[in-house]
């Protein structure tokens, strides 16, 4: 996997002049300690945008990782309503306005590949935003003082724009760029490599096509056509690495916080029971998924991983012994220099496996598939083991995993995608796409909420509320679009 660590390039965050101190929506001004807009080049702007994009993804996961039962609050608490305000801030203050300028500068300098990269980044951020809130501001969102109270675009309109942006980027990256401009190390993902961005655009498009299949906008065969041009190995993973000077935020929030006596989260039973043999008993030489020790750790002397039931006040699934799992110190995602990963080659293979399974007539309860789906399923597992840096030989050979074409069910594919995409907000989309079905996500049960006040008790959360800051400044448009947090978003209806 390519590694492009965060460097001092990210200090450009402190000189960007695009978002000022005014309370107006996207009012553009220049504080005294910033560079003038005309002094900033495309390289100056792109690193902070990429950084904010990845931090925005993590903000979304902070909001939804409890819903998808990757983690629970200290001692097993279940999360209630969320506004995901950190994501809103990243998207609307630090990302979209800056990308608008990158695109303008790319056009001015006849640099189509950089313009394409900006389009991909806009599509990514529109995607996570609309999947979080449903209808969102976009067409009027970056007009500065000319539109301080932007109207909201519907999710259907946003998805149309996402596909337009990605198709435009694919066309541009498929053609030559003779401008001489290259982002180089300012591109914290691919180091300015256009071919990598092209494969990313196809893979991201396939992800979004999967989201809207239920609305009839796309088909499983459309997904298969797109993903065929996507990632080819873990070297293509859309990943941003941290370092000792710029430490990984999961390490900071979970491991460092815990070690310094502050609150941190614990690991939920759904992810543990999916990996410790509870839901899928192993039949060979292994007793746990080799990725589990990279996710969770247990106290010295304990030999069994027992995850926290969501809302269960410290209970484990057995009910007889307390839960004991917490975030792993120096785990794959919880080391000082761990990456944040937006989308990976393994996920691409699970997208392909799911699409091929459905295209072959598969349903949420059917068994059996074709060679395309099964090969992608197995390739996805192998890629996941490689990415996580563990030996998956015995796991892949176990008959609970290598079930054969005739016995493959959708829940096998989605279980592997769920484990692999640990701490990725895409899982919240998957849960909603399949209506939180335990036919698809084996063992999944709704939070217990033993200590809850009863708000929305027994109902799954399906979206975030709009942040209070947006309600205060754009009240009319927010109220016109706000729904209860249990209301499905457009593609989920």
TrEMBL record:
UniProt keyword Lipoprotein present: yes
Lipoprotein among keywords: yes
PROSITE patterns linked to this entry: PROKAR_LIPOPROTEIN
Pfam families named in the record: SusD-like_2
Record's keyword terms, sorted: Lipoprotein
Taxonomic superkingdom: Bacteria
Protein name: SusD/RagB family nutrient-binding outer membrane lipoprotein
Taxonomic lineage from the root: Bacteria, Pseudomonadati, Bacteroidota, Flavobacteriia, Flavobacteriales
